[in-house]
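batch_manifest entry 22 of 60
target: Sigma-54 dependent transcriptional regulator
source organism: Psychroflexus longus
requested by: lab member K.T.
priority: normal
notes from requester: please return tokens only, no post-processing; we will run our own comparison against the previous entry in this batch. if the run fails, retry once and flag.
--- input ---
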Amino acid sequence: MPRLLIIEDEDAIRRVLKKILSEEEKNYNIDEAEDGLIGIELIKKNSYDLVLCDIKMPKMDGMEVLSACQKLQPELPVIMISGHGDLETAVETMRMGAFDYISKPPDLNRLLNTVRIALDHTQLAQENKQLKKKVSKQFEMVGKSEELDQIKSMINKVAPTEARVLITGENGTGKELVAHWLHEKSNRNKGPFIEVNCAAIPSELIESELFGHVKGAFTSANKDRAGKFEAANGGTIFLDEIGDMSLSAQAKVLRALQENRVQRVGSDKDIKVDVRVIAATNKNLKEEINERNFREDLYHRLAVIIIHVPALKDRRADIPELIHHFTEKIAKEQGTKPKVFEAKAVSLLEKLNWTGNIRELRNVVERLIILGDQQITEDDVKKFVQLKTS
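--- output ---
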């Protein structure tokens, strides 16, 4: 039920506003305040979806109320109510962040339309906030080991800067999660996060994928196409498995990092981009440099900060919490009640040699949930998991 607050010192206007809104939508929960000070106290105590506020009031005028609202609840839409002599002030409140203004006496259709639009705005803002929380939850880094705490500490220090980051580690350790959190905790988190798996794209197509192409640049180029660097403008581009990138593409990435410009394949026109680059690899890039498979100058451009994600066998303290996390997640996906792993089963899983890292652990947990009973026992682990201890 949407909750509205009317702040108006004239009783007659308050009654008219409440009557119009109540008759139109009986599900509105409407509070009243006869001056700005009372209105602000109500906003401090309650959660409102919309405020309608008079401009000229004793004790605290509408401009002051609007300013206070923006500090208390920045996303709360405020519709200003103005007399004929207040129109210039009403326009000024719009510059200050008011959602809209309505003249006295209020026009029925104008009032109702403005309120509906403002409430839709509130609902959309709440949905976006919930969606962002879901996205954050999706890329949660689970565990309390010392190794994971060090990674989280580095992310908190590095994310707010513009420093480029190289994430290293074996396949399945969670390098992608680190990249997502670097973006989420950065000043670019409202911009796009564009991921490119360099190992999954054929070498002859990687340049087009990264930098785009113009029509006719090659046989299948039927129209102009923007690349991932352009798509990431204002945000972050994550170059996963960058050790598999061709040398020619590496040269163009180096130029993009040096000049903040890219050229589409088949064009000589520069396109300016504002992108933060995060890269990841499971390879030893210094060895790749020695074997002339990776450019040393690009390595030094990318590796301003290096974050190493340890293998699961090097952070075994996180395994019990990861098992619980995956159990809850899988049960939610399957619409079933979460199963319970007995302590001996968890203890045995902690001892295994997880060559596939967290990705392998997740698969094993799902297998045990599908094949085991309501309680997963040590015998289930011995029966359904290949027991290779390190």
